[in-house]
Amino acid sequence: MTFAEMPQDESGWARALSTVRIPVLWHTIDELSRLRDNEQRLLARDISRVLLRDPMFTLCLLRFLATQHRAGQQREITTVDHALMMLGVAPFFAQFSDLPAVESVLAGNPRALEGLMRVIDRAYHAALYARDWAMLRHDIEPDEVANAALLHDIAEMLLWCFAPELALRIEAILESDTSLRSSEAQRAVLGLALMDLQRVLIKQWQLPRLLGSLMDETHTNSQRAINVVLAVDLARHTAKDGNAPSLPYDYSAIQEFLKLPEREAMERIGRMTLLAKSGRDWYRIEAVPGLAPLGRL
């Protein structure tokens, strides 16, 4: 465990996590280094396409922007594009040029690194589904919905990074009893549910309240929040088993939500699934050429 002693409650975990540097994907560092070579020609969208694959980096950016509130600023910064437009491309590279890589942080624990990569891969799938459905529904800001899906399980990712042995214990419990809910296994090991911790982190780190509400599964009166829940559930269930018994219910709920015939809904899901899988090298340990500490961007 990274911490001297295990935190006892949500506030304790939030305080402990506030003292560590959040790592990001090696592939993100590498890709941003390539983009920086043409910094003068870069657009915010070029960078946001990269960060869509990396919820940890997206969290770092939004967390930093929360501390940079400017006089007269009317709206929360809820998307990477808006964050980059406010911060600027050159200041972005200057601020985030030396983040640690998760592959280095967890180099001595390959099982934990694999567990983390599975969660991040799942988050990327969810973000693609959520954004596609938001665009279909003419959402005013599809990237907000995508970001909420991408960050939905950020507390679980942080647990894999900073208390990997506890994450592995939770995983073992869930594998031994497939009828158990994730929150029940989390409470058995941690004494709390990660979603409860996540709510505390969102508040303490002053992350956008809008994203917090979209990530909150209790907000069933919001169509945008339902979009996020459906995308996260589909990504989670397909990651476990392509024939999971819950999938027919997922597909039926998505079809009803999108107001599409079954064939069109399934084709749309299939396109996003293939798009997500086409970039899976980002989340494969063997695709990383070495796990030594990385240099600056």
Shape: globular
Instruction: Tell how many strands the DSSP assignment holds.
Output: 0
Q: Strand portion, in percent? A: under 5%
| Number of structural domains | 2
- Helical percentage: 55-70%
Regions with little confidence, pLDDT below 50 for 5+ residues:
291-296
Spell the H/E element sequence.
Answer: HHHHHHHHHHHHHHHHH
- How would a crystallographer describe the biggest sheet? none
| Class computed from helices, strands and strand pairing | mainly alpha
Cα radius of gyration in angstroms = 19 Å
**Count of helical segments?**
17
Span of the ends, CA to CA: 28 Å
The chain-level mean pLDDT equals 90
Protein name: HDOD domain-containing protein
Domain HDOD: 22-221
Pfam families: HDOD (PF08668)
Organism: Candidatus Dechloromonas phosphorivorans
Question: Briefly, what is this?
Answer:
By secondary structure, this protein is mainly alpha-helical. Helix content is 64%, strand content 0%.
Describe the structure.
With 297 residues, the chain is an all-alpha fold. It is 64% helix and 0% strand. The chain folds into 2 domains: 10-102, no CATH class; 106-162 and 204-277, no CATH class. The model is unreliable at 291-296 (pLDDT under 50).
Task: Identify the notable features of this structure and list them briefly.
single chain; disordered C terminus; 64% helix; 2 domains; 297 residues; 0% strand; mainly alpha
